[in-house]
Amino acid sequence: MAGESQSFNLMTALTYSPSRPDEPFSLLNRHLARLRDAHAAFARELPDCWCASTSMPDDAAMRKELERAVEEAKASGKEGDLRIRLSILPTGQPHAECFPLTPMPSYPVRLVLDDRPTEYGEPFLRYKTSQREVYDEARRRQGATLHPSPDPSDPPFDVLLFNSSRQLTETTISNVAFRLSDHAKDAYITPSTECGLLEGVMRAELLEKGEIKEGVVTIDDLREAAQRETLEIICFNGVRGVFPAYIAPEDLQ
């Protein structure tokens, strides 16, 4: 157990855009706060892990590492918007990697419901780290590829997770919100943190702006809305922004 508690990095993922010269790193303050919160939580809940004995880098050091990674990406020929993975290593050092940013399509992506509940007791399922096995395994079970397609006969994009109380929580790479009625003025409901989920930075941003609200949505709620043909789903994270999704009624059986 002690060895396992040392073998992870804290992580967050953000974007860089040269078209935003005043703040090229998206929601940067939220991302840095997310890493600090995760470090404090692991130090508190897993006192044998490296977070309890190694300090976090300060914000200036993390920003400097982001800038270094962007300059390295540009020197290697990467142009335009970038996806960045910012990690805090067990040594306490920040490390950033840049990748080309592929925009999401305008059409809704297909989700499927997982076939078993996810248990959210441990901090690895409440804070983003390099230990992603639970999410990877859910995609393997359901054949999800993270590759969008407009063809409903193609494999699904992602998997919708739920807890032991049959309350919906998140997908394997994003937070999610549901509109269950056909009233456009009704708010999108995003699962409450008490349901179990990773609290993403875009989720926090949308909550603060009042564009979504917290609540509890069960599998039965989803089925009833799908039967009424009033179900709307949006997914969101710090890299892909907000994008529409759907789940076919037959995938809710």
From TrEMBL:
Query: Pfam families this protein is in?
Result: Aminotran_4 (PF01063)
Q: Which Gene3D superfamilies match?
A: 3.30.470.10, D-amino Acid Aminotransferase, subunit A, domain 2
* GO terms of molecular function: catalytic activity
Q: What is this protein called?
A: Para-aminobenzoate synthase, component I
UniProt source species: Rhodotorula toruloides (strain NP11) (Yeast)
Question: Region labeled Disordered — which residues?
Answer: 137-156
